Amino acid sequence: MALIIGMFDSPFVRRVAVSARLLGVEFEHRNWSVGRDFDRIREYNPLGRVPTVVLDDGEVLTESAAILDYLDQQAGPERALLPPSGPARRQALQLMALATGAAEKGVLQVYEQVFRPEEKRHQPWLDRLNTQMRESLRALDQACAQRGNAEALVGSRFGQADITVAIIHTFLCDTQGLTPEEYPALHARTARCEARPEFAAFRVPFFVPGSSNKS
User: Fold this and answer.
1) The domain containing residue 63 runs over which residues?
2) Is 7 helix (H, G, I), strand (E, B) or coil?
3) What confidence tens digit (pLDDT) does each residue in 153-162 have?
4) Buried/exposed 119-131: b ≥16 CB within 10 Å, e otherwise
5) DSSP label of 212
6) What's the structural domain count of the chain?
7) Are residues 50 and 153 in the same domain?
8) How much is the pTM?
9) Residue 210: predicted pLDDT
10) Cα distance between residue 16 and residue 12, in whole Å
């Protein structure tokens, strides 16, 4: 893999970078913003979205799920971060779906705050987004509680479910002001993940303009 495009304050960009590091895949990085660098990103990805990955042969991959699938294929089934088949794979995918769904609802709330004037915000819509996000986090907290201090959320080996859940929880803590007391088991597992050097290498807090979440 040659190049990752996107800022590491995006949980979707960050989970690609952390996964690549865990798999020993070297890459270059372009710290391009979907706002400031929209036209440059569209030269590679017509949607202007991140992450976008440009392989050594010029092939372009878009969307983090597709990029993670490519990384696993390159790593082979023994090293892949997602189980190859069966109940373990389904369980991991379901946990990841809850996490990415929560992230999407969190991103929409950020967009409302950043781009829409306060007088034009529709509170019932914001309440719905917040409920969807928090119910997903509650389910993830329960899953973490069931696993306790186990190395992984699924099976015995640290994998993509652990990466995705932790990174997205961190992002939502940054953007939504979540506290450790709200989802204690999820918070504890996230803290253990964030202490890993592969996570720390790409930790860039997300700052919402006009908020008090700047660290």
Assistant:
1) 3-75
2) coil
3) 999 999 999 9
4) eeeeeeeeeebee
5) S
6) 2
7) no
8) 0.93
9) 53
10) 7
